[in-house]
């Protein structure tokens, strides 16, 4: 009798554990899906902030090419990273390049950088970060206008030696009490410009096909 009772209780506990594990797995999967969807929505909004709808006539979200593996390290990119291409009448007018600065004060700073055919910046937006609220989080446009200071800049304006925060002898402002965060962003935006400049002919080749499985108008 006692043995049967123990076996029955063990079976119930095992079944309960399996059900609990399954429920947790489903919850975790659902949470991951929601996070991924939220990140994608934030990225889409940022893309259109940099290249508004009226400034391109193609399907910006689906006209992409992969980041070359040679650029994964300098851009902080990965195998899944995509470069978005904006077109007018078939000609590529700008690229939006993903990049991640690994030297932020509190960790990675994920961003996208829009670069026009003439090498000037169309815009920069920070997508994800863990910087200090009230200090480093001023890299977000909703918190501060600082990120707009990159608009129109290039590797020649300012000159390459001045692509630093002012504390380091450069052109860009830092934040009071927070120099590491803007320094990381400035450095990473500069690396994006260098990548585009080095690979300009290939990146702006209008005949280069989109990533596998994707189409553009």
Provide the domain count: 1
Strand segment tally: 5
Instruction: Report the portion of residues in β strands.
Output: 15-25%
Estimate percent helicity.
25-40%
| Total count of helical runs of at least 4 residues | 4
The low-confidence runs, each spanning 5 or more residues with pLDDT under 50, are: 213-217
Mean pLDDT: 87
Tell the overall outline: globular
- Derived from helix and strand composition plus strand pairing, the structural class reads alpha+beta
Major sheet: arrangement of strands: 1-2-3-4-5
Radius of gyration: 23 Å
Distance between the termini: 74 Å
What is the N-to-C succession of helices and strands? Answer: HEHEEEEHH
